[in-house]
Write a structure and sequence with these properties.
Elements (H helix, E strand, L loop, with lengths): L1 E10 L2 E11 L4 E5 L6 H8 L7 E6 L2 E2 L4 H5 L2 E4 L11 H11 L4 H14 L15 H12 L6 E5 L7 H16 L3 E6 L2 H7 L2 E6 L2 E6 L1 H6 L4 E7 L5 H9 L7 E3 L4 E6 L3 H14 L4 E7 L3 H9 L14
Parallel strand pairs: 3-8, 3-9, 6-7, 7-8
Antiparallel strand pairs: 1-2, 1-4, 4-5, 9-10, 11-13, 11-14, 12-13
Helix pairs in contact: 3-4
């Protein structure tokens, strides 16, 4: 339903996309992950006809995005990073207006607006101008607007950034419902948790090109699957604790906080490895404040794949 081959986009001396390939089967969710400035939003703009790539091809629901942009737009619902709503209209008026622009007809546009207000828990605010809405309410309204025409392909560009936990969970529930109804989604996000919950497949990009592809579990496995993390009582035990961790570690033991915090990626026998470490600590009288297993975070994956974490702004941020 979504296919891109060799997408290239340049801005003067910056190559925002450097030959990106994507493929999303019908009824599936592909999450596009990457640090700020990686090219996620540029890719979205190219796929949704808002930006013409310098090289490459793209299609949505079988329609060539470059050759037939108007026909492609009719297949796409887009919710961008910033809520595209008229601040002087109410939520109801915004949705009715979008319905009329899609030529749904007055009655159908009104009925569809009411359906979406209920679905996104916005009926309580439906009669107020959207300039009085919170950020979460505006994001929910923006996503509702992208669904007015019930498009088969939905593109969500960082839809939950800045939302409170309740609003984020509501958005996740709606996205699951859409996929259950047969929609195909392309989702860009900086949250591995979000991709883990929603995505069937994940593509990680950096500097405009794909650097990893797989499920959330497969990507996490690339950083060692799970990690043993230790907080020592005293840095006097750093060398001994590091040596014990090194016996089970996949790769180098990471040391931080002046030697009090240590972390080691481990393999498939994580529980057994943790037991060995605890036994080693007891044998060598290493005193700890905290020790445990955890799965990699988004920053662990990014740090492993790109050498920097997801919060860093790249010099290409301006081209997003």
């Amino acid at each position: 339903m979504i296919r891109a081959t060799g997408l290239v986009k340049r801005y003067k001396d910056v190559e925002a996309l450097a030959g990106l390939d994507l493929a999303v089967p019908e009824g599936k969710v592909l999450a596009l992950l990457g640090p700020n400035g990686a090219g996620k939003t540029t890719a979205v703009r190219c796929l949704t006809t808002l930006l013409k790539p310098d090289e490459g091809t793209a299609s949505v629901a079988g329609v060539d995005v470059l050759a037939e942009p108007a026909a492609a737009k009719a297949k796409i619902g887009l919710s961008g990073q910033y809520a595209a709503v008229d601040e002087h209209l109410t939520a109801y008026e915004n949705l009715v207006m979008i319905g009329r622009l899609y030529h749904l007809g007055r009655q159908r546009a009104r009925a569809r607006a009411q359906e979406l207000l209920e679905r996104f828990d916005l009926t309580e605010f439906a009669g107020r101008p959207t300039k009085t809405y919170s950020g979460g309410q505006r994001r929910r309204l923006d996503l509702a607007g992208a669904l007015v025409a019930a498009p088969p392909v939905i593109v969500l560009d960082e839809p939950t950034t800045g939302l409170d936990p309740r609003s984020r969970q509501l958005m996740w529930d709606v996205i699951r419902e859409l996929v259950g109804e047969g929609a195909t989604l392309l989702l860009t996000t900086q949250y591995l948790e979000e991709a883990d919950v929603l995505a069937d497949d994940i593509v990680v990009i950096d500097h405009g090109r794909q650097i990893a592809h797989g499920t959330a579990d497969e990507l996490k496995a690339q950083t060692g699957g799970q990690r043993i993390e230790v907080v020592l009582t005293s840095t006097a035990d750093t060398e001994t604790a590091s040596a014990i961790l090194n016996e089970v570690a996949v790769g180098e033991v990471q040391v931080a906080a002046g030697g009090r915090e240590l972390a080691a990626a481990v393999g498939d026998e994580a529980a057994s490895d943790l037991l060995r470490v605890l036994q080693g600590f007891e044998r060598e009288a290493v005193k700890v404040l905290d020790v445990g297993l955890r799965r990699p975070t988004l920053d662990d994956v990014f740090l492993s794949l790109t050498g920097h974490d997801s919060s860093e702004n790249e010099s290409t941020e301006a081209v997003k």
